[in-house]
Amino acid sequence: MRRLGLSDALAAQTAPGVKVQAFEAGKKIWTKGSEVQHWQYIMNGLVSASIPTTNSESTPISIYGKGSWFGEQSIINRKPSFADYVCLTPTEVLRMPAATFDALFGQEPEFARYVAKLMAWRVQKTSETLTLMKLGNPCLRVVMGLAQFAEALAYRSERPPTVAMGEGVEIPIAQNTLASLCGVSRTLFSEYVQQLAQKEWLKLHYGKLEILNIATWLRFARRQREDNVNTLNPTISELLEVLRVLGEMKPAQ
After folding, report:
1. What's the confidence (pLDDT) of residue 196?
2. What is the separation, in whole angstroms, between the first and last Cα of the chain?
3. Is residue 86 helix, strand or coil?
4. 137-253 carries CATH number 1.10.10.10
5. Spans of all domains in the chain
6. Is the per-residue pLDDT at 242 higher than 70?
7. Topology of domain 1-135, CATH
8. I want to staple 152 with a disulfide (CB 3.0 to 4.6 A). Which of 62, 65, 67, 130 is the partner?
9. What pLDDT was estimated at residue 47?
10. Are 40 and 71 in contact (CB under 8 A)?
């Protein structure tokens, strides 16, 4: 709680109202249009915020991993959920009642500042990702979809990442589910994944994927969002070249 800008005394006062809840993989925490009654923090697991598309499937616009809060936008704006929030793996969350969140946001400047920074970054990131995932070609959706998992699994998703946490991270989700999330067939997904693996951006084992060279994937996601208007129809060769160039960049000092 102290990381949210709360004093020790206020954190102790708030803690009894914050409860733990567990969800199975595939469980919807909220559906699009439903009331958001809690601000939630992921202790373990992965949650996707997805919006329906015209072909009765859904497009993921945010992936939240361990250490992420989510749901603040709907509570502050007093509007229903703009997306379906679905557990991609078994997930445990802490749930802060919306009334408690509202009171803290209105009365505690440090808490309000924390949430405002979180929202400002997320709103821009979500808008840019939506463009890529809805309008991008299948190849871009696959590579950008994997980049979203790199972000969610390697870092706390509450701020732009700054410090690497290892060179590789496994996505704990079956490839057929990943293909569905990216809006492509399993066959097409496998074709692109094999090419990424040949260039050693991924490692394949037992139906799961391990993302290698996390720092490069994060640079890729940031670059694609910044340049989304011009990069909606790339080939896999072009995306592999982007990854190669970004992989040769020296880390910022």
Report:
1. 97
2. 31
3. strand
4. yes
5. 1-135, 137-253
6. yes
7. Jelly Rolls (2.60.120)
8. 65
9. 94
10. yes
